[in-house]
Design a protein that fits this description.
Elements: H1 3-35, H2 48-53, H3 59-80, H4 88-132, E1 139-140, E2 143-150, E3 161-167, E4 171-179, H5 183-200, H6 207-221, E5 230-238, E6 243-249, E7 255-258, E8 261-264, H7 277-280, E9 287-290, E10 296-300, H8 302-305, H9 317-321, H10 329-343, E11 352-358
Antiparallel strand pairs: 1-2, 2-11, 3-4, 4-5, 5-6, 6-9, 7-8, 7-10, 10-11
Helix pairs in contact: 1-3, 3-4, 5-6
């Protein structure tokens, strides 16, 4: 119990230490103004005390410092000549100090209100994200899994990027997607797709039938039919086989990292994004690739590859992955996140989702690739 009150006293003590700066300024200006020749007036410098305080303190502290500044101005007039206290010069300076002080108090009150609103928005958005996109469990059958969502908007922390996983009787089905558009409309469309995926992934035994069902669900229920769409990659990873089946619907291809060498899994004929199936009438072709024990599989959205540095250069994904030989998904994503944010200067221009999966060497499948 002891560390908690100690930590809570530190900001209070720090605030008291900072208050001494404007108070010392008020005392110094008051004393010097009284001592200098009468034709020199340093009283206007008192306004700097509440102005400085407003940069870090709340409305109460600013109001207190402003009141001390007004008292300092009154003390200057009284100590110089009590009759000057009612002179137009000192009355004007007092009025100016009062107006500036009240304005700063109002500014700080509005700033604190805005800060509380942003805190509430962040709390609500984080709660919504945990409901819509909860972190995947560390294990899905024999697979080790790590997931990460990076939001571009600090206030919102959630957008149209999505991921989901469902265990079936023979393996794991995954989806990674990106909704066209921003804001709550994109969040609603993402929730729609994830709900359809979670409902159908266990019942649709064939991957192309599952994707066709998802496209139909998206076309039927999207918030902006004919205009909105969702890029996605849907994968079926069996427990007892290292051959992964995949359908890519206009989405960035996954990357397999093996012995420090990344390989992008391109699809010869990618399907159109979900929601555009009626226009393109696609023939969903199932592609496959090998995920051997010890491999790392990376799934992501285009917020990763479209991240730019200060010179406008896109993030070179495969180049930056080259040389990584670890097999722990959590350690990999932690390194990946830090490297991506370093490249982008600490902030992304678009939301980004990253999933890392690994098949442990002990869970060696029965059929080689």
């Amino acid at each position: 119990m002891s560390p908690r009150p100690t930590g809570s006293r530190r900001p209070v003590r720090a605030g008291r230490a900072w208050v001494s700066v404007p108070v010392a300024w008020i005392v110094a200006v008051t004393v010097v103004d009284v001592l200098v020749p009468p034709d020199l007036h340093l009283g206007p410098l008192l306004v700097a005390a509440p102005a400085i305080t407003a940069s870090w303190a709340g409305p109460r502290t600013v109001g207190l410092v402003a009141a001390l500044a007004v008292l300092g101005q009154g003390a200057i007039a009284w100590l110089r000549d009590p009759d000057e206290l009612l002179s137009s010069n000192h009355q004007t300076q007092l009025t100016a100090l009062i107006v500036v002080g009240l304005s700063l108090v109002l500014f700080c009150a509005l700033r604190e209100r805005r800060a509380r609103e942003l805190t509430q928005v962040r709390y609500v958005s984080e709660t919504a994200q945990r409901g819509l996109l909860p972190p995947l469990p560390p294990r899905l059958g024999p697979l080790r899994v790590a997931s990460l969502y990076l939001a571009a908007e600090a206030e919102a922390r959630i957008g149209g990027d999505l991921y989901g996983a469902v265990r079936t009787g023979s393996g794991t089905r995954l989806i990674v997607g990106d909704v066209r558009g921003k804001g709550m409309t994109a969040v609603g469309d993402a929730a729609l797709l994830l709900g359809a995926f979670r409902a159908a992934a266990r019942r649709r035994t064939v991957l192309d039938e599952l994707v066709a069902f998802l496209d139909e669900s998206v076309r039927r229920d999207l918030s902006e039919p004919g205009e909105a769409f969702i890029t996605a990659a849907v994968l079926d990873i069996p427990d007892g086989d290292d051959r992964v089946e995949m359908i890519v619907c206009g989405h960035p291809p996954p990357v397999v990292l093996r012995d420090g060498r990344p390989r992008t899994v391109h699809t010869p004929r990618p399907a159109p994004p979900l929601g555009l199936g009626e226009l393109a009438q696609p023939d969903y072709r199932v592609d496959s690739f090998r995920l051997a024990p010890g491999d790392l599989l990376l799934l992501y959205t285009d917020g990763v590859t479209e991240a730019r540095d200060s010179a406008g250069v896109f993030y070179p994904l495969t180049e930056r992955l080259t040389g990584w030989t670890g097999t722990d998904p959590d350690a990999f994503l932690d390194h990946f996140r830090r490297d991506l944010l370093h490249h982008a200067g600490g902030r992304l221009d678009d939301d980004a989702v990253m999933l890392a999966l690994a098949r442990p060497a002990a869970a060696r499948p029965g059929r080689p690739g």
